[in-house]
Amino acid sequence: MNPITFWHQLSDEPPDAPDLAEDFHEASKCYRATIGRLIHSGRLDRDPDLAHATLQGSRDLSHLPSMPLPPIDADAERRALPVLLREPSCRSFASRPLAEALLGRVLWLSYGRYPQDPAAPFRRRPIAAGGALYALEVYVIAELRGRRGLHHYNVGHHALEQLRPTVTDAELRDLAAEPDLVASAPVILLITGLFNRSRCKYGLRGYRFVLLEAGALIHQVQLVTQALGLRSVAVAGLYDDAVEHLCDLDGVDESFINAVLLGHPP
Ligand SMILES: Cc1cc2nc3c(=O)[nH]c(=O)nc-3n(C[C@H](O)[C@H](O)[C@H](O)COP(=O)(O)O)c2cc1C
Q1: How many other CB atoms sit within 10 Å of the CB of residue 158?
Q2: What's the pLDDT at 103?
Q3: Alpha carbon of 143 to those of 56, 98, 166, 167, 181: distances in Å?
Q4: Residue numbers of the chain with a pLDDT score lower than 70
Q5: Cα angle at 44 between 91 and 20, to 5 degrees?
Q6: CA gap 126, 217 in Å, rounded
Q7: Dist. CA 63–CA 59, nearest whole Å
Q8: 215 lines ligand 1 (CB under 6 A)
């Protein structure tokens, strides 16, 4: 079709209605030029009440009738249920890469599909997701077979699909507000949301479900890495546009949400 005629036809159509979830997601993105006005750390230094309230991290309704619960023996809980108590995040790693099989276990135990039969209609995964719609994707920057590249975790096939054979140090550092931290991680998991997978059923509320699912995935990755003797930290300080450019995402239908860095303990 003649492109001029085509665009004329489009201009006769009413524009799409504003989309609140897309607008919000865009407004919450972090760019190199805007990160300074997104994060207001100074407020916590200037306002002692605010700092105190954030340290508390929970509402205090102790003026109401209150029922103390039986005391917790933290050490006994840790001994009995070690995999359930998340250890502190770790921001330094041994430089050696993860063996392929170990990386595969991290991915499968965090977001894989079981049983591992692509033909099975069974869609269960290690984390819960609204409507079992599983709207996240996981991209992996890691050294495999001697080269650090960018891969997509294909859940159905339990395989890593190579998007870029190489990711250079400079490319990696360009992604992040904390370049030293990100460049030091043997494995970087980039979690993205394919929002319409949930929104096609739940509309705007589906956007909420995708973010909830991402939180559950971060937590699961941290518990799995801990159980496998690895260390991890969730990292939000990546530039959305840089990650989306690297992964070749449009940033609207599929967009970056958060990263998790992991590796062997230092
Ligand atoms: C969504 C999210 C984003 C985070 N982003 C960063 C980050 O950009 N840089 C960082 O050093 N830690 C980051 N963290 C880690 C938190 O700072 C850390 O979980 C928190 O301080 C609690 O400490 P702990 O994980 O050691 O218990 C993030 C955690 C979450 C859940």
Answers
A1: 15
A2: 98
A3: 41, 8, 9, 9, 16
A4: 1-12, 116-122
A5: 85
A6: 9
A7: 11
A8: no
Nearest CA to ligand 1 atom 13: 235
Q: What is the pLDDT of residue 54?
A: 85
CA–CA distance, 190 with 2 (Å, rounded to integer): 40
Global pTM value: 0.92
Burial, 197: exposed, middle or buried (Cβ in 10 Å; 0-12, 13-18, 19+)?
Answer: buried
Give DSSP secondary structure letters for 16-40.
PPP-HHHHHHHHT---TTTHHHH--
234 lines ligand 1 (CB under 6 A): yes
Question: Is 94-186+204-263 CATH 3.40.50.2000?
Answer: no
CA-to-CA dists, residue 128 to 110, 113, 210, 239, angstroms: 11, 12, 11, 28
How do residues 113-144 score in pLDDT, each as one tens digit? 987 666 666 578 999 999 999 999 999 999 99
Q: What is the pLDDT of residues 64-104, one digit of tens each?
A: 999 999 999 999 999 999 889 999 999 999 999 999 999 99
Question: How high is the pLDDT of residue 1?
Answer: 47
Which sequence spans correspond to the domains of the chain?
94-186+204-263
The confidence score (pLDDT) of residue 255 equals 98
Pocket test for ligand 1, best of 30, 54, 89, 184 (most atoms within 8 A of CB): 89
Regarding the beta carbon of 89 and ligand 1, being less than 6 Å apart is answered: yes
Q: Which atom of ligand 1 is nearest to the CA of 181?
A: 11
Beta carbons of 237 and 176 less than 8 angstroms apart = yes
Closest to 224 measured CA to CA, from 194, 187, 171: 187
